[in-house]
Amino acid sequence: MQQESGKSVTIVGGGVAGMSAACALAEAGLRVRLVEGRGYLGGRASSYLHPGVREIVDNCQHVLFGCCTNLAGFYRRIGVADQIHWTAEMTMIEPGGRRSVLGPSRLPAPFHGLPRLLAASAFTLADKLALARAFAALLRPVAAGSTESLGAWLRRNGQTEGALNRFWRLVVASALNAEIDSIAMPYAAKVIRELFLNSAFAGSMGMARIPLSGLYAGVEPFLAERGGEVLLNTHVEGASWDEATGQWLVCTRNGELLSDCLVFALPFEAMQKLLPRLPVEEGREKLARQIERHQHWPICSVHLWFDREITSLEHAVLLDREIHWMYNQSRLQTGRGGHYIELVVSATRAFAALPRQAAIAQALAELAEFFPRVKEAKLEKVALVKELRATFGVPPGIDSARPSPASPWPNCFLAGDWIATGWPSTMESAARSGHLAAEAVCASLGEPGSFLDADLEPRGLMRFLG
Ligand SMILES: Cc1cc2nc3c(=O)[nH]c(=O)nc-3n(C[C@H](O)[C@H](O)[C@H](O)COP(=O)(O)OP(=O)(O)OC[C@H]3O[C@@H](n4cnc5c(N)ncnc54)[C@H](O)[C@@H]3O)c2cc1C
Question: Which of 176, 327, 427 to mutate to test the pocket of ligand 1 (most atoms within 8 A of CB)?
């Protein structure tokens, strides 16, 4: 859809949500201005030069999955889809080093993962039977309105300690970045169906071959070629609607901006801060009350540079300890020299509260239990990155606190991972929200456009279990 009107839109927030909305709308022919408070694009999914270690680090390893169709659509639009490294295998390691590899077989979905699950030494026979029972129960979608938590559902479905600790708490709760009692069952069921049941590709893991911010280098030229622009270091402080001209006046620390439409692509806490500086309108209070119900969950990452390789594995899930995921960045990222390992600890407020030295010491000691070469290796440098506001939780009932892209104001729309996308706090939710907001902008201008990328079709027998 190509707009003939030459209408303009200001998008506030240059994270994945804002960039996705901006690129879709620029492609549709609108004059797009993407306004970001920081000096770089990417928001919570970005990389930067860490002053302590003088290395470019991601603020944390970000993983996507085959089912993330809108994020993939955004990457395609800006020409970086080939910068994602895909893998279908997940290696689980027990303390002491014993490995189990989960991944697909030739069996049709939903049975494709079964042979490797049955062969996994990380699980006892009782664990495997419990997991198989749970997966069978999840073959049919959980009603969207269910108010049960994942924890309650697991207790009701007789899960063993091994299945709880080594699968549900580690793989599923860490993908959703919360404790099992704080996760609404429909979200957990969605993750299980997409990652383990729908198809082998839906569950394959994608990791960027370059630091995250490198992925977005094409956004500015993409917008510029279509008459748009990116304004960095431009913090938005408020906005007002002029009924007479039918335009928005956006106030920034660097001056004022005029446009026909406005999209706020902000995290919920930034939206909350802006609300008092937006026009008083019926609906503003309701939005404020919705935002109040959201809560953050932390993610920490420990970045370690050794003098030698401690493992040739690209990535692994580490069982029974505080550190959850290992990413061998020297192997995953092209052109990355040295021996750089990143460890990720999800959904653990206790780890996030540790002082720096204690957190690093614990991470190193645990890493040595999985990879004994750590004991001989010299640690050359280390960085700890704590993101206390990494994601928002999806506890039972949260859907009524996730607004649609429509806002209380005329020609103004909402995006951001916390908007009603049906997805947990992820880059896919952010990209979806951006595409939904772009559709809402075009509809408001009387030029309906379609930007939402379709979900992957389930494969094999899952086609009949919708
Ligand atoms: C440590 C960590 C690990 C994660 N791991 C994963 C993962 O593995 N996989 C995954 O899919 N997701 C992961 N996520 C979640 C993912 O990063 C987010 O869901 C997604 O990036 C959110 O994008 P967004 O555009 O909605 O918000 P944001 O990325 O927060 O972008 C909002 C932007 O708005 C800007 N802004 C705020 N206020 C103003 C203002 N007043 N004026 C102008 N600009 C403003 C901010 O600077 C920011 O750039 C992780 C997040 C973190 C922090």
Answer: 427
pLDDT tens, position by position, 38-81? 999 999 999 999 999 999 999 999 999 999 999 999 999 999 99
List, as own/partner pairs, every contact residues 416-422 make where C-beta atoms lie below 8 angstroms and the sequence separation is at least 24, other chains included: 416/13, 416/15, 416/17, 416/264, 416/265, 416/266, 416/267, 416/268, 416/271, 417/16, 417/17, 417/267, 417/391, 417/392, 418/267, 418/268, 418/294, 418/392, 419/17, 422/144, 422/190
**For ligand 1, is residue 202 a contact (CB within 6 Å)?**
no
Tally of CB atoms within 10 A around 298: 19
Per residue in 11-26, pLDDT (tens digit) is: 999 999 999 999 999 9
Tokens of 51: 């002053």
Query: For residue 1, is pLDDT > 70?
Result: no
Task: State yes or no: cis peptide before 110, omega within 30 of 0.
Answer: yes
Give residue 160 CA to ligand 1 midpoint distance, Å: 35
Residue 168's contacts (CB-CB under 8 Å, 6 or more residues apart) are 150, 154, 159, 180
Dump pLDDT digits (tens) for 377-429: 999 999 999 999 999 999 999 999 999 999 999 999 999 999 999 999 999 99
316-356: pLDDT as tens digits: 999 999 999 999 999 999 989 899 999 999 988 899 999 99
What DSSP letter does each residue of 27-82 carry, written as one string? HTT-EEEEE-SSSSS-TTS-EEEETTTTEEEESS--EEETT-HHHHHHHHHTT-GG
- Give dist(CA 435, CA 424) in Å, integer: 16
Among all chains, which residue has been given the structure tokens 């953050």?
296
**Separation CA 37–CA 211 (nearest Å):** 21
Q: Of the residues 44, 59, 271, 436, which should be mutated to test ligand 1's pocket, given the most ligand atoms within 8 Å of the CB?
A: 44
CB 92, CB 100: distance < 8 Å: yes
Which ligand 1 atom is nearest residue 389's CA?
Answer: 53
CB proximity list for 361: less than 8 A, separation 6 or greater: none
Q: Which amino acid is located at 274 in the chain?
A: L
